Amino acid sequence: MLRKVGRRALPAGALALLILPTTAFGQDALDLETAVPKAIDELNVLWILVATALVFFMQAGFAFLEIGLSRAKNAGMGIAKVLVNFSLATLAWWAVGFGIAFGGGGWLAGNTGFLFSFGTDVAGESATGATAAFFIFQFMFAAVSLAIVWGTTLERMKFSAYIPFAIVFAAVIYPLIAHWGFGGGLFAEIGSGVQDFAGSSVVHLTGATAALAALLLLGPRRGKYGADGTPRAIPGHNMPLFGLGVLILWLGWFGFNGGSTLGTTDNRFAEVVAVTNLGGAGGVIGALIMTRVLQKTLDIGMIGNGAIAGLVAITAPSGYVEFWAAPIIGAIGGVIVVAGIMLFERVRLDDPVGALSAHGLAGIWGTLACGLFTSDRLAEAVGIGQPGLFYGGGLEQLGVQAAAVAITFAAVFVMSMATLLAIKATIGLRVTPDEEEAGLDISEHGMYGYPEQFIPTAELDGYGYGYPVAPVGSSPAAQARREEVSAS
Predict the structure, then answer these.
(1) What is 44-223+230-440's CATH superfamily?
(2) Are 74 and 439 in contact (CB under 8 A)?
(3) Cα separation of 454 and 445, whole Å?
(4) Which of 76, 81, 247, 340 would be 441's cystine partner, CB 3.0–4.6 Å?
(5) Residue 214 gets which letter from DSSP?
(6) 3-state secondary structure 24-59
C-alpha cells in the first residue's frame, strides 16, 4: 500500500518542486489555479525539447550509416552533405516550410507562420515559447525526411545538386505532406482521419519516394552491374561505423515517436517509447531470419536495415497499437526490407543503403498496419480514425490508410521528379566518370576522408612517413619502405 501511495505522490511532489521556487521571490500567495497549469505546460515544453535533441542526434546516425556503407574514397563527403543540407533546410523551414505545414489554412496548405518569430501569427494564435518548441521539433522531422533522400544517391551525385533540392524539399515538398498528415489538411478529411502517429508515410515514405525519383535519374554506380546485367557487390568500407549509426538512429527514434505525444499527459510518451523499442527489436529478428533463409548467411547490413525497417514500420502505429502488436509489425518490416533490397537490386535500382526498402516499403507497411492493429482504446485516446480490422473495425480504416499511401507517393514523386529534372537540365545531377572513379572526397571537396590510404607515401610526412630512420618499434617492412622513399 505504501508503495502505491508513494508512486501516486511522486508526480504531485515533482510538480510542487517546480512550483514552490516561484514563491521564494515574491510576496503574493501561490495561486494553484494558475501555477499548476503553467507548470504542466512547461513540463510539456521541456519534453518536446528533449525529444527534439534526440531527433537531432539522428543526423549523426544517418551520417555514420551512410559513411559506413560508402567506399573509403567517398567517406568524407558524407559529413559535408549532412551539415550543409541540415543548415539549408533549417532556413527554408523557418522562412516558408513551417507556415505551409502548420500555418492553418484549408486542406492544401497553411497560410500563416512564415518567417517564424516570437509573436508571429500562426493559425490565428500569437506564437509563444511553446510554439517555438513545436516549430523546432517539427523541423527535425523535415530534416530526417531529407536525410532519407540522399541515401540512394551515394557516390555519384554532384554536391551542387543537393543544394537546390534541399531548399525545395524543406520549403515546399515535405511541408505540404506534413500539412496533410499532421496539420489538419487533406488526410484529416479522408474517412474519419488517417492514422500516422509519427510519420511512417508523412516522413519516411516521403523521403523514400523522393529518393526513388533521384535514383531513376541518376542510374547505378559505375561497376555495380556487369555487361550481362548481373549485380555486383560494392561493400561499404566500415561496418562497425554503420552499426553505430543504426544504434544512434534507434536512440533518436525514442524522441521521434515519443515526442509526437507533444506532452507528458498520462505518461503516454512512455508507452509510445516502449512500443517503439519492441518494433525495432522485431525488425532485427525478422531480418535475421529472412537473410538466413534467402542468403544462407547472417548479413550485417541486412540485420542493421532490419532494425531501421522495424522502427519505420512502428512509427505510424506507435500511438495506436498495444504492446503485443509492436514486435509483429516490426518483424514483418524486417522481412520486407530484406526481400525489398534484393528485389530492387535485381531490377537495376542501385540503392547503396537500402533506403527504398527500409523507409519506403516499411513505411507503407507501417501505415497500413494501423488499419489492422489499431486498438479501440488508443483510437479513442488519440481521437483519429477507427479501430483496426483485428479489433472489429472492419476494412474501413485500412482503406483510409491505403489512400494516404497512394496520395503521398503520387504527390511526392511528381514534385520531386519535376524539381530534379530542372536541376539536371541546369547544373546537372551526376559527377563525371573520372570524378566518380577518383571518389567524391577528392573530386568534389579537394581532400580525402582517409588521407593515409590515398596520398602517396612520400607526401605523408605529417603521418610519420618519409623519414630515413624508422621510429622505435616499427616493423621491418615499414623500415624498408622508409629507406626506399629516402633513397628516391
Answers:
(1) Ammonium transporter AmtB like domains (1.10.3430.10)
(2) yes
(3) 14
(4) 76
(5) H
(6) CCCCCCCCHHHHHHHHHHHHHHHHHHHHHHHHHHHH
Q: What is the mean pLDDT of the chain?
A: 90
Residue 126 bridge partners (DSSP): 121
Q: Which residues of 284-312 are buried (b: 16+ CB within 10 A; e: fewer)?
A: bbbbbbbbeeeeeeebbbbbbbbbbbbbb
How many Cβ atoms sit within 10 Å of the Cβ of residue 228?
A: 5
Parse the chain into domains and list their residue ranges: 44-223+230-440, 457-488
Helix axis angle for 268-295 and 239-258, nearest 10°, is 150
Grid cell 607515401 in the structure block, residue: 457
Of 89-103, 435-449, 472-486, the one with minimum mean pLDDT is 472-486
The answer for residues whose C-beta is within 8 angstroms of residue 192's C-beta and 6 or more apart is 384, 385, 386, 396, 397, 400
* C-alpha 303, offset from chain centre: 18
Residues 176, 207, 436: CA angle, nearest 5 degrees: 130
H and E: helices and strands count for the chain:
20, 2
**pLDDT tens digits along 27-70:** 566 777 788 888 889 999 999 999 999 999 999 999 999 999 99
Torsion angle defined by CA atoms of residues 349, 151, 215 and 427, in that order, rounded to the nearest 10 degrees: -150
Pairwise CA distance, residues 291 & 301, whole Å: 10
Using an 8 Å Cβ cutoff, are 393 and 386 in contact? yes
CA 390 to chain centre: 29
Would residue 472 be called left, alpha or beta, if left means φ above 0 and alpha means ψ between -120 and 50 degrees? beta
Evaluate the CA torsion angle 165, 170, 171, 172 in order and state its sign. positive
Residues in the chain: 488
| 155 Rama class: left (phi>0) / alpha (psi -120 to 50) / beta | left
Are the C-beta atoms of 414 and 351 separated by less than 8 Å?
no
Q: Which three cell numbers stand for residue 118?
A: 516570437
pTM above 0.85, yes or no: yes
Q: How does DSSP classify residue 231?
A: B
